[in-house]
Design goal:
By secondary structure, the chain is an alpha+beta fold. It has one domain: Glutaredoxin. Helix content is 41%, strand content 15%. It is built from five helices and four strands. Strand 3 and strand 4 form a beta hairpin. It is globular, with a radius of gyration of 14 Å.
């Protein structure tokens, strides 16, 4: 299985998709087609944590002042399912490996895996 979750309006996602060129990946744009419970559970199984999937740089994270709250794994799960901007992106799933976010190291590891 090869799948990528991304946001069409995100310049970083666009740049990474152009760089990685995931031609044989199933693509899911998360604003028009939000992540469902089964998909989130699959990501959680590979990542081991909802917090790892959570975008702490989202504007809503700051406006809700979530950084000053003690969030549980259940809270992270709930927020990701309720609001697409809370999913850290892009998320690439390649077989039994998940690549979360846009750091240079993550993208380098992804390139090694797919090339």
């Amino acid at each position: 299985m090869k799948k990528v979750y991304f946001l069409q309006t995100c310049d970083t996602c666009k740049r990474i998709l152009k760089e990685v060129k995931p031609t044989d990946f199933e693509r899911q744009e998360i604003k028009s087609n939000p992540v469902n419970v089964a998909q989130l559970e699959e990501m959680h199984k590979l990542s081991g944590s909802y917090e790892a999937l959570f975008n702490k740089r989202a504007k809503l994270y700051k406006s809700l002042d979530l950084k000053n709250k003690s969030l549980s794994e259940a809270d992270y799960r709930k927020f990701i399912l309720e609001e697409y901007t809370f999913l850290k992106r892009p998320v690439f799933m390649v077989e039994d490996t998940i690549f979360i976010g846009n750091s240079k190291n993550v993208i380098a590891e992804l390139n090694v895996k797919i090339n």
